[in-house]
Design a protein that fits this description.
Helices cover 61% and strands 0% of the residues. It folds into 2 domains: 109 residues, Helix-hairpin-Helix base-excision DNA repair enzymes (C-terminal) (Endonuclease Iii, domain 2, Orthogonal Bundle); 109 residues, Orthogonal Bundle (Endonuclease III, domain 1), CATH 1.10.340.30. It is an all-alpha fold and 243 residues long. The relative contact order is 0.14. Helix 2 packs across helix 12 and helix 3 crosses helix 4. The radius of gyration is 19 Å and the shape is globular. The structure holds iron/sulfur cluster. Iron/sulfur cluster binds next to helix 10 and helix 13.
Length: 243
């Protein structure tokens, strides 16, 4: 048995995996899987997009990304541009004063390490090697490394966990209540069957995120019409307490 398989068996009970699959199936019925991919960017562009999206609404980070692309013809030009110009271009996202120097530093480091601004080589690495390489870059954690591999044209098998996904997973009891978003990535991904393909992993993220956006709200989740109420201890307790 490989060490990866052994670790997986140690941390994921059959019961938890069964529950994760039931949640996935119920929510896929609710939101309609397979979910179309929302991006078709090369991996470097996806990395830039992900870095801009940290703690920013999708609409605002999308605007910042589009402005950056419109004003700078290539990522090399962004790398070499004055930081003030980059900051101005990405002004619609949060913390442009921090993100602009970070972005330029990431582009410089990739150039130093790879000799060019291109991340297509990640397709030839194992998923764990690709994630490790990405997470060695400043500002890149498990969510961003998973987003680059999953959302980009690489279409690889990696599970991003955003704040909606994280909240829903805790309420459903898939992960302990105090689990932070970072460690939640490995725990939730380990619950998904090894045989699932990249589209199924992507669907799992998307349906849990959509559920957080459309039903399991941060304040006042709409438990009475929830498609996974029968699997959710938090929602069942909440409804029982409200009589
Ligand atoms: S039952 Fe309520 S708390 Fe549980 S997942 Fe559904 S909406 Fe969220």
């Amino acid at each position: 048995m490989s060490s990866g398989r052994l670790f997986r068996n140690q941390v994921v009970s059959n019961e938890l995996q069964h529950k994760a699959i039931l949640v996935h199936d119920h929510l896929c019925t609710e939101y309609g899987c397979p979910i179309p991919y929302f991006h078709n960017l090369d991996p470097l562009s996806e990395l830039v997009s992900s870095l801009l999206s940290h703690r920013t609404k999708n609409r605002d980070s999308g605007k910042a990304y589009n402005q950056l692309r419109a004003l700078f013809p290539t990522w090399e030009v962004v790398r070499d541009a004055p930081v003030e110009d980059v900051q101005q271009a990405i002004a619609p996202c949060t913390f442009p004063e921090t993100k602009a120097p970070c972005l330029k530093q990431v582009l410089r480091l990739i150039t130093e390490q790879r000799g060019e601004l291109n991340l297509d080589f990640l397709a030839d690495l194992s998923i764990s090697e690709a994630r490790k390489w990405l997470e060695s870059l400043p500002g890149v954690g498990p969510k961003t490394s998973a987003a680059v591999l999953c959302f980009s044209q690489l279409r690889r098998r990696a599970l991003p966990v955003d704040s909606h996904h994280h909240r829903v997973a805790i309420r459903l009891g898939l992960i302990p209540a105090k689990t932070a978003v970072g460690p939640a990535h490995a725990l939730l991904e380990a619950q998904l069957p090894e045989a699932w393909n990249a589209q199924q992993i992507y669907d799992n993220h998307e349906v849990l995120m959509l559920h957080g956006q459309r039903c399991c709200y941060f304040a006042k989740p709409d438990c009475q019409r929830c498609a996974v109420l029968d699997l959710c201890p938090f929602g069942q307790n909440r409804l029982a307490e409200s009589g």
